[in-house]
TrEMBL record:
<feature type="compositionally biased region" description="Basic and acidic residues">
    <location>
        <begin position="40"/>
        <end position="56"/>
    </location>
</feature>
<dbReference type="InterPro" id="IPR050330">
    <property type="entry name" value="Bact_OuterMem_StrucFunc"/>
</dbReference>
<feature type="domain" description="OmpA-like">
    <location>
        <begin position="315"/>
        <end position="430"/>
    </location>
</feature>
<feature type="signal peptide">
    <location>
        <begin position="1"/>
        <end position="22"/>
    </location>
</feature>
<dbReference type="GO" id="GO:0009279">
    <property type="term" value="C:cell outer membrane"/>
</dbReference>
<feature type="compositionally biased region" description="Basic and acidic residues">
    <location>
        <begin position="399"/>
        <end position="417"/>
    </location>
</feature>
<keyword id="KW-0732">Signal</keyword>
<dbReference type="InterPro" id="IPR006665">
    <property type="entry name" value="OmpA-like"/>
</dbReference>
<dbReference type="InterPro" id="IPR006664">
    <property type="entry name" value="OMP_bac"/>
</dbReference>
<protein>
    <submittedName>
        <fullName>OmpA family protein</fullName>
    </submittedName>
</protein>
<feature type="region of interest" description="Disordered">
    <location>
        <begin position="399"/>
        <end position="421"/>
    </location>
</feature>
<dbReference type="Pfam" id="PF00691">
    <property type="entry name" value="OmpA"/>
</dbReference>
<keyword id="KW-0472">Membrane</keyword>
<keyword id="KW-0998">Cell outer membrane</keyword>
<feature type="region of interest" description="Disordered">
    <location>
        <begin position="40"/>
        <end position="97"/>
    </location>
</feature>
<feature type="compositionally biased region" description="Basic residues">
    <location>
        <begin position="64"/>
        <end position="75"/>
    </location>
</feature>
<dbReference type="InterPro" id="IPR036737">
    <property type="entry name" value="OmpA-like_sf"/>
</dbReference>
Length: 430
């Protein structure tokens, strides 16, 4: 009997132990599962953090390796031309600047020829709000790669000061940097507004484009307008810019009457023939649904200019025209690829009229030494000629070059807008 009792107790103990162990293992399994989930979440967060940190490194140049890559990329933003002596034109080299200019071969944007407002923030102090802008929120100037940038804040509206209301035909340009990550909202965007007031009132007439800032899904560009207080257009334009969001981009807009066109770098992303209503007088920027302190938006080199019409017609009808749309690196004769649209129209005029010959005249502002400005203006006119010859196959004997430095200003040299108008290239029929 004792043996049977002992065996019974052993069986009960074993059953109890098995039940307890099963419950323990079950709890352990759940704990392990939760731990695995936490580990997975941590890895995802670490990966996202690394991607964000990488974006910051790219923008702010935290290490030498990144800086070298950044500098290499920036050099591609300049149309490289062989060096030239002051009085000797380059020989016809079919490869001159070919790779850099060909990147913008689809770029048909032509900037306005009269500068209304321009701002590279060079006159403002770091950390300040820029003096040529108004806002209902906040913002500040920061330095990135030795260049001043205007850091925008979410939920704020930014309005540049203009000397007058916007004309019927005008262009808007600026450089843009963004720092976003996979957690940035799908509703994050930079809104570009054209409105019937220059304050912070709700407009009765307006047109806007919403530029997406989301990385994890393609949102496209939203276009919208209101006429007389009623929405007429709202639609999504399917353009995916996620691959370039974390790099420096050039944004260009051309408004000709009701027509609205927009480019990001060389690619046209919006072209709506009747988007812009009447009575539009102001341009505004508005970041929306961004995480302040995490998502970052910077702009610089803002330019608003009157014009942007067909330069070929002006040249063929009037025998001359002047443009501020051929851009050079500061103090240099290196042409930037954003100049492609203007150069293309000049080339088309020369092809259209095979008897047309042009004198290309370079002009500078009054900053710096008189003789250096004269030399620089000559070199810039030669650079323009060589691009027309090498890239557009224009006979070099149809093109003369001349530089006049600062001797023939068309505007005052006391403001950034005046200086920008004086830095121009003139084309005169011979």
């Amino acid at each position: 009997m004792k043996i049977l009792k002992i065996l019974g107790l052993l069986i009960v103990f074993v059953c109890f132990s098995t039940t307890v162990n099963a419950q323990f293992l079950k709890k352990l399994g759940k704990a392990a599962e939760r731990a695995a989930e936490r580990t997975l979440e941590k890895k995802v967060e670490e990966k996202s953090s690394k991607e964000t940190e990488k974006a910051f490194d790219t923008v702010f140049n935290k290490n030498k390796g990144t800086k070298k890559r950044k500098n290499k990329k920036r050099n591609k933003d300049i149309l490289s031309l062989p060096k030239d002596s002051e009085n000797t034109e380059l020989q016809n080299n079919p490869n001159t600047g070919k790779e850099e200019l060909s990147v913008y071969s689809k770029f048909d944007f032509v900037p306005g020829d009269k500068i209304l407002m321009t701002d590279d923030f060079s006159l403002d102090n770091m950390g300040d709000f820029p003096s040529k802008w108004n806002t209902n929120g906040t913002g500040e100037l920061v330095t990135i790669d030795n260049e001043k940038w205007f850091k925008l804040a979410g939920k704020s509206i930014y309005i540049p000061d203009l000397p007058s209301e916007l004309p019927e035909d005008y262009t808007v340009e600026f450089d843009m940097l963004t720092v976003v990550d996979k957690k940035t909202s799908s509703q994050a965007k930079l809104e570009l507004w054209l409105e019937d007031n220059n304050l912070f009132n709700n407009p009765t007439n307006m047109a806007k484009v919403e530029m997406p800032l989301c990385l994890f899904i393609s949102i496209g560009f939203i276009v919208e307008n209101k006429v007389g207080g009623e929405r007429v257009i709202r639609n999504a334009v399917e353009k995916d810019i996620r691959e370039i969001l974390l790099q420096k981009n050039h944004v260009s807009m051309a408004i000709n009457g009701k027509r609205f066109r927009m480019w990001v770098n060389e690619n046209k992303v919006v072209d709506v023939p009747r988007l812009v209503p009447e009575n539009i007088i102001s341009f505004k920027l508005h970041p929306r649904n961004v995480r302040d302190g995490i998502d970052k938006i910077f702009i610089t080199n803002v330019k608003i200019a009157e014009g942007g019409l067909d330069l070929r017609a002006q040249l063929l009808e009037n025998g001359k025209f002047s443009t501020t749309g051929i851009l050079f690196s500061s103090g240099s004769d290196q042409i930037k690829p954003e100049s492609y649209g203007v150069l293309k129209q000049i080339a088309e005029a020369l092809v259209q009229d095979s008897t047309l010959k042009l004198n290309i005249i370079g002009h500078t502002d009054a900053d710096g030494n008189d003789q250096q400005n004269l030399s620089l203006s000559k070199k810039r006119s030669i650079s323009v000629k060589n691009v027309l010859v090498s890239q557009f196959k224009i006979d070099r004997n149809r093109l003369n070059t001349e530089g006049k430095g600062e001797t023939e200003p068309v505007d005052e040299n006391k403001t950034t807008e005046g200086k920008a108008n004086n830095r121009r290239v003139e084309f005169v029929k011979i």
